[in-house]
Design goal:
Keywords: Glycosidase, Hydrolase, Signal. It is built from five helices and 14 strands. It is α+β, with helices and mostly antiparallel strands.
Length: 250
């Protein structure tokens, strides 16, 4: 009897732990898409570009020691073409500050990719020579809409000099035939903007998520909902979230 009781307690403890555990699902119990769903949609795109640290062969040869990982010595714009069609285009790369001022530029022409291939393009020293990494970004923009633009953050969120939401952006919400359109306009750099529509309406959906904006840019969240209350409720501080929330005074 004692053994059975212990077994029941163990099962109950496991069940409780499972109920309290963080879920790794991209969609929650009510069908709402989590931020990771939008991130996954972006990095599973047929054509993707990213800026990543890389190690040159020359640096590897002169700094390689057995059992020690070789550090990266430069940054590259890496362009991946996962389609069956070749790609040819160009990229404009800028180092900017959070106010939108351009600090350095680089033009990468003749970017040619075969089907199902990728290439890396080293960034110039002027681009990666950050004066204040906590207040600067690298932005790479393609010559057409075959790729999404790239924003590279050289510093961790906690040390970045982000503005609090009240200063970083403004919002405007209006009702539509299908629900609500929530437009956000950036005054300063806005990182990873996300609308948690389920906090207003359990049945609401939203097409956009994890959007970063540079000063002067706007994004409109298209929210599918039958919510009869004030459309501005979707812009409430506990609903419209971003990395800028870390600078909020609570």
């Amino acid at each position: 009897m004692r053994g059975r009781t212990m077994k029941v307690k163990k099962i109950a403890a496991i069940a409780l732990a499972s109920a309290c555990a963080f879920s790794m699902a991209a969609v929650d119990f009510n069908g709402h898409r989590k931020p990771v769903w939008y991130a996954s949609r972006d990095f599973f795109a047929p054509r993707l570009a990213t800026i990543q640290p890389r190690t040159s062969e020359e640096y590897r040869e002169t700094h390689s020691w057995e059992g020690v990982k070789v550090d990266a010595d430069h940054l590259e714009l890496i362009v991946l073409n996962d389609t069956n069609e070749p790609y040819k285009g160009s990229w404009a790369v800028n180092r900017v500050d959070f106010d939108g001022n351009v600090l350095a530029t680089q033009q990468i022409d003749d970017v040619e990719l075969d089907a199902a291939s990728h290439k890396g393009f080293p960034l110039n020293e002027e681009i990666v020579d950050f004066g204040d990494a906590n207040n600067e970004l690298i932005v790479a923009v393609p010559s057409d809409d075959s790729f999404a633009r790239v924003i590279y953050n050289p510093a961790e969120i906690l040390t970045q000099e982000l503005d609090a939401p009240a200063d970083a952006f403004t919002t405007k919400a209006k009702r539509t035939a299908d629900g609500v359109e929530l437009t956000v306009t950036a005054n300063d750099y806005v990182r990873d903007l996300f609308c948690m529509v389920g906090k207003v309406d359990d049945k609401a959906t939203v097409e956009e998520g994890l959007v970063s904006l540079l000063p002067g840019e706007s994004v409109t969240f298209h929210i599918g909902t039958d919510y009869a209350g004030d459309p501005a409720d979707f812009a409430a501080a506990n609903v419209l979230r971003s990395a800028n929330d870390l600078k909020r005074d609570f």
